[in-house]
Amino acid sequence: MYTAMALTFTLGFLAIIFEHKIKVNKAASALITAAVCWVLYVFGQSSVEGSVEVIETNLMHHLGDIAGILFFLLGAMTIVELIDTHDGFSLITQRIKTTKKSTLLIILSVTTFLMSAALDNLTTSIIMAALLRKLIDDKKDLWLFAGMIIIAANAGGAWSPIGDVTTIMLWVGGQVTVVNIILKLLVPSIVCLAVPLTIMVYKMRGNVAVPEINEEEAGSLKVHVREQKLVLGAGLAALLFVPVFKTFTHLPPFLGIMFGLGILWTITEFLHKSKADSTRKQLSISKVLEKVDTVSILFFLGILLAVAALQTAGHLTQLATMLDENFGNIWIINILVGLFSSIIDNVPLVAGSIGMYDLSVYPQDHTFWELLAYCAGTGGSVLIIGSAAGVAIMGILKIEFMWYLKKISLLALVGYLSGILTFWLMSSL
After folding, report:
1. Span 268-281, pLDDT tens digits
2. pTM of the predicted model, to two decimals?
3. What is the DSSP string of 237-272?
């Protein structure tokens, strides 16, 4: 059953890759893969007394962690959609005057990089996906920009202690400290973005096609500029509040995002209470929730549960042990961990590394931990399903796996390796 689980995960992964060939939604493939992996694990352990209860306990433990991610995603997507419904993002897009592809790409990539460090790569990618839909009409250009947004979001999250879930794990676990991780990873992360961005800017020519505004639909909602500003400001404040909430309460981020959503919900209820029923309904949370991409949330659920099955069964621990025994070099191990994180979720890989290496082996702020934070944070950009930012944008903008592999993966790999080379040079000096 151990081998069958690995084979099932591989087949499920292939079904996700070739979603448009087999005409089966990736969420369905992910959910089937997750269920079959856990069933195979139960059957494989059924002869051991009490094993089913233990497996169920492990499953519910993983489900609790995954639910936190899913509710965070749901809250963030709802806030972003609520801002969008109130046309709040137009206040930002109106200030972006350029339509030149290269200039616009630089502005959006740098903005994403900085926002990801302050918020986190998942929240930032959701916001930027909403902005891209307002700025770019052509699907080909939209997807190219989105590919760079994924790279920028992951690079921006890697050097900040609150920018990526794996960096948070290392910070909370005591493997890294705030000032040190910023000083050591800021420049490599900049290089990780700058190299593919330079290549992309060099190749881009012309201007983007701006989406046409449906004046009739926009006018029917009658959203005043004051209301746009209020909802935009309150929404961004709710998103920015999450890392503050996490830092001071040490409670999961999803609780912070739900609190922010509740506040924003209350504000909009009072804001539109005196409007006509039809207008109030269009601007309500219940209407906004219809626009939230629940298919992407189900895909997240499936893929994370499938990975959790492999983690519980010991596949990922075996992988980490194999890397340690066959290579034994912290540079090679971490480079491979980063590349594997583009296929398997980086959280269990980092958790496995933390479990394998005690602080007595690699003390706080050791090169191993710094490199692990960089590689696990940015390596996921190589494939679109390798990071939370990639999966979110894939769902929101309907980007195909094979398209990303052909157009973006090599750029992401070059940036990833360039950042590692930069880190090595800095460490040598």
Report:
1. 988 888 888 888 88
2. 0.76
3. HHHHHHHHHHHHH---HHHHHHHHHHHHHHHHHHHT
